[in-house]
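Re: weekly structure request thread

Next one in the queue (103 aa):
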Amino acid sequence: MDYYAYTLVTDNPIVVDFSGCKYLDDLHERIRKSFGFPACCGKNWDAVWDCIDGYFDENESRTIQIRGFQSMPNELQEYCKPMWGIFSDLQKECRNIIVCRES
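Done, posted below.
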């Protein structure tokens, strides 16, 4: 496996499942795997933005589905506030991207 290579993800929706997630490393690993980001993707919000910026074609229609968010500890939910900003910025750049949260 190439440490710097993206893995093609054709799933629609792209599901990020946080069910049972209790630790920061696990949270970032779930995001990385869901989007097929390279193994070198750092475990911080700047790295997530760097990987997702330009990831989608601006005319591409995709749904990002967030599952199990409410099941995480409150401090992890609080830590995720920048994630919602990243998804908001992504939707401004790619108007056909839909982000939805399931409980």
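The longest strand covers residues 62-67. The radius of gyration is 13 Å.
Next request, please.
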